[in-house]
Amino acid sequence: MILTLLFLFAVCSICSAEETFSERLILSPNRDGTVTSSFAFTTLLRDAQPRDPAKLAEEDESQHYTLFPLALGQILRDNAITELHLTLNAGKWDYQNWGYPEEEGVGTGAELWAWMGEGAMQTADERWKNLRNALAGLFCASLGSLDEQRTTSPVLTFQPEGDLPQASTSHELRHGTLPSENVCTENLTPFLKLLPCKARSGIATLLNPHRLFDADWHGMGVHVRYLEGAGIEVRLAFQAVLNPVRYSGDKKRDWSLSSLFDRSIERSCPVAGSSDIVVQVPPFGAIITEPAPSANNAGSIAYDVRRVDKPLDVGMRWPDEAWFEYPLDAPPSALMIRRTLKGSDQYKGRLSVVLTNSAMAEVKTSYLETMPWLLQFYLHSLRVICDGIPRDDLVSIISYTPPVPHARPSLLQALLTLPANSTVELTMDVVKPFLRYTEHPPDAHRGWDLPPAVFVPLDANATGGRLRLRRVYTSVLLVDLAVPDFSMPYNVIIMSCTLIALIFGSVFNLLTRKFVVVSLAKAKRAAVDNNNHVRRD
Amino acid sequence: MADTAAENPPIPPADLSKITFESTQNRRRIIASYWLIVILALPLWWKTTSIDRLSLPDGRARALTEKHLSFPVHVKLEAGQEQHTRILGEELTRWTNHAAQTSGLIVKIERGSRPGSYSVVVEDGEDVKVDGRTLHLGTGDRHADAAQRVAETVTNLLAPHASLTASEEHRTVKYSSRYRLAFTLLNEDASSGQAALSWDVREALEAYLHGTFDRLSILHNFTIESQVQYHAPLAFQPRPVKVAGQDAHGLTPEDLTVFVNSAEWTLASSSSNDPVLHFVLFVPSSSNAPFSDKTVGHSASSNAFILPQWGGIVLLSNPPGHLAVSALEKTFQTFQRQLLTLLGVPDLPPGVRSAQAEAFTEWQLDALVRQRARQNFENSKETLNSIVKLVHQIENMPVGQDVKGDVQDALIALDAALEAAPSSSTQALQHSADALTLSSRAFFNPGMLALLYFPAEHKYAVYTPLFASVAAPLIAAIVRELIAWRKARRAARQPEKRARAD
């Protein structure tokens, strides 16, 4: 009996160790009165390996999951994906007021990138296509349109966040962005279904679509990576910048979970290995309302949702403030980037990127443009002006893949050097191509969204180890392309038919016309006769 | 100008018909050549704008309608005495052949045995049991109706599907060579305190279902996946009942039809197009537990039920936190029975028991193989006939080479199945399954829909502005020329007449 119990205990400890689930919510008040909430739900499939691409043709082993989402797991297995990142965001992240985000993928719209091993019967591009379509089905997003016209391989900026298995020889990166794809509640529902506790217990209870999609900024992310020695990790993340000043009637920035999300945590998720709420406390003025925190570190306090009394409703108050005063001065962040498209012409334009380095040291940053062929660069016209002085030496192009109209986007990877305390402006002439009739979207006059540029400031002091470089996204651009009159094909058909008929008719008449000699005297007489006849009648 | 020409004789009035391009003959030639080009171009135009419709082998498809798969079955009869065996054999032949005709069986009673043949041993005693392909039949002391009993039992074993009711038949899933089996441990509400958080599904499958999968491998392949869900609310409220004086919750038959809450439960991944069979172990929450064994208003006392063509559900109240292999034994035996029912494995006739440890005997498996082969054959035939009918009915429907190839291959596979049926039922099944796949692929070929959305009227609407305006001068020219020709002929005839009258 004791032996059986021991055995059962052993079995149970093994099974629970195979997959672990932890959830965490970080709440940090910002200086403009908003509160950034970033949810992260991490599931680790211990000692699992990404599928070997060379074995894709063989039948896969049975998949048995307890905490790991099965629907996502099958997609990863079917396409032998080593690392996957999908983000769906709405809004423009304000680096100045909100700081650097917890989840760094904050580019507007949909962004998908994946690292895949090579050596399969199917090429990486075919698997990328399958992956896109499978994820589009899973998350109800138009990821299917991330086709070859939007896919690039910017290896310098999008380095794997986990490890790549050593056994497989080489890995390929595929990256695509769709800036016009916004996140909405139909994407959140399937996202919640991937969580072991859905939105019914634990921290995920707070994911209330009515509040999240009303936020100043919101975005969800799915991140899969392989960690050598640990296993495959799935991180489902949701980030939202909520505005308590807007919700409250008395212009105060006081907030609590129930005022932000309209919900509080009633019960904990029974399968979560850890379940923490971390609140970043601003230096002065704010006090934390109920209940007593589980841990208190410098600058932040933490709650262990599994242990504290429920319902849990964390909150923060500024008792000394009668109302919140919006700060009018924006603090300079280390690196400010503004990207604009100039010119009202439908043929030509100019892309301008203004970078302000307010630090007291020189900063090197990589610069990535993955531009659909809707905007084509004239690379020779690239000019760099630093504080009014031309300084073309500040930029060095690392690679440039020119676009192929109707087929391939252009990829520009460059390295910029920003001198201390300076403003650098890059300008480049661009040309807007002419689209085919069928390539226009249904709302053609709205224009085309162009993906954000990505900057990765390189840390000069970093030495060795795994260097976590932070990506900085610029805002998206809207380009206005020449739009035809859409009744054009019928006009063309009618017009050319008329022309052909005219030409045909005149040639035919010339060839078959009968010339007759008419004697005028006879004709006159006949006419008179005719007239007489008529009169007599 | 005409005035000067008429008044000044030095320039003689030109006889215009003398100029080459003004001669009637040349003009007629020009018009004729225009028309010739138009007429020559017509077939080309017709060919380039017509829809590609290859002819389907409809004669062959129609010829197959009358054919059915039939399997010869050899039964060896042993009944002790020679005389007795002979009489019993005659009786049996009469009975079985009458009953088995609908199932396409040709039963042959023989003395000797051959590979794959069945044997019926009539013994003394009461026991009726099946062991491999042998049936031991104890007639007891009622020798009088022995023949009838033997015949009934054998018929039931050989053609069990003939006696199925419509609802029983409806439970069976459509044939597919591969199924995805999705095993799910569903907790109604894991945070309510009563929940099974994990299960040894891998080991349980190995222990209780592996043998079944192996034996069914001649019919189907299986892809298996499993998951655990911790919050799976029901879409209705189970009603409270009293069971043996204690409070419990029960399900009515109406509840069973809406039991699966597909809006909230994600039960299987959708990574392939194979049909999915779901097996759900449902743990009710503490507020709804225990689910009574007796469902309200239903005679069957069971904690498991089948949803036809969808899968099976087992209810489990008060589970331990971790379900070990031993705790899953009952559940997986139920899953096994549900799987067999869904796949159409027939039950043994009442009163007959199996002497084997396995879930089903050779008699049942053979009967299923024959039944599936017949079904596939009939379905494939039906699909082919529908394609032919559809193509005849809708004249705008294109038929490409791939459709034609699939139809031809399906016909070949059907012929192969007909040929293989007398010798091997598994081969016949294989061919009939191929035929079914090919015929449904042809039926659902997306290319056949292409031009339904581009009707001929559209084409004419685009072409008319060109063709009408081009045709007008052409027709006018020919009409004018005809009138001129008739006038010329009359004019030529009149002087003749006048000459004759003179």
From TrEMBL, chain A:
<keyword id="KW-1133">Transmembrane helix</keyword>
<keyword id="KW-0812">Transmembrane</keyword>
<protein>
    <recommendedName>
        <fullName>GPI transamidase component PIG-T</fullName>
    </recommendedName>
</protein>
<dbReference type="Pfam" id="PF04113">
    <property type="entry name" value="Gpi16"/>
</dbReference>
<feature type="transmembrane region" description="Helical">
    <location>
        <begin position="492"/>
        <end position="512"/>
    </location>
</feature>
<feature type="signal peptide">
    <location>
        <begin position="1"/>
        <end position="17"/>
    </location>
</feature>
<keyword id="KW-0472">Membrane</keyword>
<dbReference type="InterPro" id="IPR007245">
    <property type="entry name" value="PIG-T"/>
</dbReference>
<dbReference type="GO" id="GO:0042765">
    <property type="term" value="C:GPI-anchor transamidase complex"/>
</dbReference>
<dbReference type="GO" id="GO:0016255">
    <property type="term" value="P:attachment of GPI anchor to protein"/>
</dbReference>
<keyword id="KW-0732">Signal</keyword>
From TrEMBL, chain B:
<dbReference type="GO" id="GO:0006506">
    <property type="term" value="P:GPI anchor biosynthetic process"/>
</dbReference>
<dbReference type="GO" id="GO:0016255">
    <property type="term" value="P:attachment of GPI anchor to protein"/>
</dbReference>
<keyword id="KW-0472">Membrane</keyword>
<dbReference type="Pfam" id="PF10510">
    <property type="entry name" value="PIG-S"/>
</dbReference>
<feature type="transmembrane region" description="Helical">
    <location>
        <begin position="460"/>
        <end position="483"/>
    </location>
</feature>
<keyword id="KW-1133">Transmembrane helix</keyword>
<keyword id="KW-0337">GPI-anchor biosynthesis</keyword>
<protein>
    <recommendedName>
        <fullName>GPI transamidase component PIG-S</fullName>
    </recommendedName>
</protein>
<dbReference type="GO" id="GO:0042765">
    <property type="term" value="C:GPI-anchor transamidase complex"/>
</dbReference>
<dbReference type="InterPro" id="IPR019540">
    <property type="entry name" value="PtdIno-glycan_biosynth_class_S"/>
</dbReference>
<keyword id="KW-0812">Transmembrane</keyword>
<keyword id="KW-0256">Endoplasmic reticulum</keyword>
<keyword id="KW-0325">Glycoprotein</keyword>
<comment type="similarity">
    <text>Belongs to the PIGS family.</text>
</comment>
<comment type="pathway">
    <text>Glycolipid biosynthesis; glycosylphosphatidylinositol-anchor biosynthesis.</text>
</comment>
<feature type="transmembrane region" description="Helical">
    <location>
        <begin position="30"/>
        <end position="46"/>
    </location>
</feature>
